[in-house]
Design a protein that fits this description.
7-stranded antiparallel sheet, Beta-Lactamase, 420 residues, Rossmann fold
């Protein structure tokens, strides 16, 4: 078993439960859960108390897998051990708590974000694994095709304006933003971020942790940052009108602003900003581009094989140029836990706001009209980019359809309906 070393753990006076949490078997068990999760490339560890056992699950490539069931009698000590490691109050079991742990696994520093939640069978714990290796990847390694990558790099080199990255939770938005920041010259630029929480520590940035409990929300942190002579500002998420308004003002006064939104595609971001309360003329004047993205699971290299496309998905690729001989899937093996997939890669669509789109925004054009114009410009949509990766044997058509679903329809179906 790989050793897990807790960095800067504080000493306290333990009572009975603390003594249990400090016993070697519990320490070894928690260390194993963490080190094994990192080895399996899990993004989250779920420790879930049930009536007669505790269920341990890892989220791997976006999907939860049950790893084991442990005895219920171990659960309080396991939770207490994790609380000790993350400097949480082990006597408080009625309220949720959040903490963090720094560990060294095989000489590599890993940040863990801990969340506890009281349930009817005890406290559930979720540990988010934040491996800084992922943000050191180049944009091409994230899965950007050459045309999108070149255009995106042009956008992050702009002197001012807003660049948005959009998609659902878990679609890789933060990784894309961090990778974009890593492309910039921190020695010559004043780069600042406002995040909740700070997921990865970047030595060349000034990172601010938002904390609404003490009144330091995104908007107030942004106002202070603007007095710090910034060149580039990264906002973890635009959540409300005030944050959006300050971001727009910053962009219009000579700053490059990067942030995220939760929308299904690039065109929907304009509608989202309008719904937040931003004036259309302000959006048109400040917005440079919107990158929409998803993560699709990659076919397992150990059990990859050619297969015949099922009839129920054939209709989605009839006009996409995908030939039968080009389709692959994973048969399932020990390496991929029988899933047929191992690892993930991004699919993207980049909407650059040129004069056509600025005019459409000012004229109150709908998201459907923008999608039509985007399609007519021959730019690849999320679905198109996914099909490219199907053709290259990176993923399956079923996986592309899964992540581009919008309220029971695929992104492709929604688009077709929108242009009828």
């Amino acid at each position: 078993m790989t050793d897990v070393e807790v960095v800067a753990e504080q000493e306290k006076d333990w009572e009975d439960l603390e003594r249990m949490a400090g016993q070697s078997p519990i320490i070894k068990f928690v260390n194993y859960l963490i080190s094994n999760a990192i080895h399996e490339k899990a993004s989250d560890i779920h420790i879930e108390p049930k009536d007669k056992f505790t269920r341990i699950r890892y989220r791997i490539d976006g999907i939860l897998f049950e790893i084991m069931q442990s005895p219920s009698k171990m659960h309080p000590a396991v939770v207490s051990r994790i609380k000790i490691m993350s400097n949480l109050d082990i006597s408080e079991r009625r309220l949720p708590q959040d903490g963090k742990i720094k560990v060294a696994v095989s000489g590599r520093g890993i940040d863990l974000r801990v969340s506890t939640l009281p349930t009817n069978y005890g406290e559930k714990v979720v540990i988010r694994v934040l491996d800084s290796k992922s943000i050191m990847m180049g944009l091409e390694q994230l899965g950007m095709e050459e045309m999108v990558c070149t255009a995106f790099q042009s956008q992050i080199a702009m002197p001012h304006g807003i660049l948005l990255v959009t998609g659902p939770t878990g679609s890789g938005k933060s990784t894309t933003l961090y990778s974009a920041l890593c492309q910039m010259d921190g020695d010559k630029l004043n780069i600042s971020t406002v995040e909740d929480p700070v997921e990865y520590e970047l030595g060349f940035c000034n990172q601010v942790q938002a904390n609404e409990k003490i009144g330091l929300d995104f908007a107030s942190a942004l106002r202070s940052l603007l007095r710090q002579d910034p060149d580039i500002i990264m906002i973890g998420e635009i959540r409300d009108n005030e944050t959006a308004r300050i971001a727009v003002q910053a962009a219009l006064t000579g700053h490059l602003v990067l942030s995220t939104l939760h929308t299904n595609d690039a065109a929907s971001s304009i509608t989202r900003l309008v719904n937040i309360g931003v004036d259309r003329y302000m959006i048109a004047a400040s917005l440079n581009a919107v990158l929409a993205q998803r993560l699709v699971r990659k076919i397992c290299p150990k059990c990859k094989q050619i297969y015949r496309i099922p009839e129920n998905v054939r209709k989605y690729v009839e006009n996409s140029g995908v030939g039968q001989e080009q389709l692959f899937h994973g048969a399932g093996c020990d390496y991929c836990r029988g899933s047929g997939y191992a690892g993930r890669v991004g699919i993207y669509e980049l909407l650059v706001i040129d004069e056509r789109f600025r005019d459409m925004i000012n004229k109150d054009s709908s998201a459907n009209n923008m999608r039509r114009t985007f399609h007519e410009s021959k730019q690849p949509s999320l679905f198109d980019d996914g099909i490219k990766k199907v053709k290259r044997g990176l993923t399956t058509i079923e996986e592309v359809l899964r992540v581009t679903e919008v309220y029971g329809q695929t992104e492709q179906e929604v688009f077709v309906e929108s242009i009828k």
